[in-house]
Specification:
The complex is a heterodimer of chains A (about 400) and B (about 160). Chain A contains 16 helices and eleven strands. By secondary structure, chain A is of the alpha/beta class. Chain A has a domain of about 130 residues: Thiolase/Chalcone synthase (Peroxisomal Thiolase, Chain A, domain 1, 3-Layer(aba) Sandwich). In chain A, the strands form two sheets. Chain A has a nine-stranded mixed β-sheet with strand order 3-2-4-7-1-8-11-10-9, sandwiched between helices. In chain A, strands 5-6 form a two-stranded antiparallel sheet. In chain A, strand 5 and strand 6 form a beta hairpin. In chain A, helix 1 crosses helix 3. Chain A is globular and about 55 Å long. By secondary structure, chain B is α+β, with helices and mostly antiparallel strands. Chain B has one domain. The longest helix of chain B has 14 residues. Chain B is globular, with a radius of gyration of 19 Å. Chain B starts with 18 loop residues before the first helix and ends in a 7-residue tail after the last strand. Classes of the chains: A alpha/beta (about 400), B alpha+beta (about 160). The interface between A and B is large, with 45 and 50 residues.
Chain lengths: ~400, ~160
Amino acid sequence: MSNDRVGIVGIGQSAFRARRDDASYPELVREAVVQAMQDAGLAFDAIEAVVYSLSPDAMVGIGNAERLGVDAVGGRNKPFLRINNGGATGISSVAAAYYHVVSGMCDVVLTAGADKVGECGDSQSVLNKIWDPSYERPLPLGTINMLAMSAVRYMQRYGMTEQDMAHVTVKNRRHASLNPKAHLRKVVTMDEVLESRCISWPIKLLDCCPQSSGGAAMVLASERFIRDNRLDAVWITGVAHVAETYWMGDRMGNNPTAEHADAYALGRSFEKSYRMAGITDPARQVHVAELYAPFSNTEFHVIDAARLVERAGGSIARLRDGEFELGGRIPVNPSGGTLCTNAIAVTAMARVAEVALQVWGRAGAHQVEGARLGIASGNGGDHQIFGTMVIEA
Amino acid sequence: MELLGRQEVWNITYDHALGETASWFYTRIRDEAAIYGRRCAGTGRVLVPPRSFSDETLLPTTEWVKVGPGGRIEAFTMVYERFNNLPPPPYAFGYVLLDGADTALGGYFKGVDLTDPHAAAEKLKIGTRVTTKFAAERKGDMLDFWFEIAEQAPGS
């Protein structure tokens, strides 16, 4: 295994919208890829392998849509690997690209993908099908009500209220208003969130992420290649993934290992990536966080799992006090996060890309002053498969 | 310029095999109006719905254990939004730890007025005692049973 570090040398992201009627699915992938290649200042010949980021096919309505992506990423005559880890797909794809480079197999790897959830328009119909046909499929399960049930357990254990949830939306919409790439950029008030229609109690419409269309791409390279070619880079210093049981009912009841109120395996994944990066006190060492949280309530348990607070549930009061806003102690989701943009196949890649831009000092109007070390995460499956990264300048 | 689209529908019928464990579980629901779990010999934990192996010990489960019909609510939600291919709202469902089980089983909650979500949430709060109700005509399915709030909590 190579001892070289792995750097991020190019980033591309669409301006995410509900629909992109001007672009077919592969054209949307290509849009992000061209941006990332221009950002890296590299020609396609430099790319040695491609990791393709694509979550469930039914969301784009194309069976094994990665086949259409091969041309869009310049994949002809190159190793090509599709990753699907549900909502975690994007960060898992960056991790797989990282493995290609850190192993010494490749010097330069492209990871890219896109989603058109707005064309599906009914993601809960698709997501109901992630439950097993033996037992749980007859129930009206979806990701919204699954995480509503996490919310009711979090409320009971830690005292979260609907007002606390609304604070998350208000914060993230304010952040998204500064990010021209974000899908939902309209600032909202507490009352607007609390008075929005109930979807799956306690989750209301404005506690939910949108169904977005757009693409993302990143170019990773070895430290040797970066040095030899005098490229600018930020560094991936921590990488981990941890999964937990499929069975939601096993995350409650008598002495569950992975409590459904929390994000247990995400916490384990952060422990591993912090250890790898040499981070011992994340609440003091992390400057910025982009944490996958598709519903307002879930931002609390991911902040807890990242140990940006001293104990589980500690995120509630600290978020209310503004610690996680731009200008606060540790801005969380300064891009507006998943709550404001969710093109599922690349959402968790956008978390990594946004943190990379932050520590690079290139985040624009939502830049966190002085950010040098950031963290990113992704959640997939039925709150089940988690990826984490530490990115440093 | 004028941008065009195409509507496509996926409509695929699958004929899933449920396997031996789930088949045994559903035939007892159909024939006995009873719910069973499987005990892990390694930890003694009773897994409901029953699984042929434990994800913790990775050993086969060894024993059928009758659970319920009483239990306590572990998680709930009330859905007010209409989704394609899902039941018409409103409805309440969630997870119940049946007496004798160690893990929670999903099912609908019936008999609760869902007009006001906050009042319904109070009725369904975590820890509330429920009982399992079975349909008079059962075909061997998750929808053959549901949960209702118990008239009186035993021991209270």
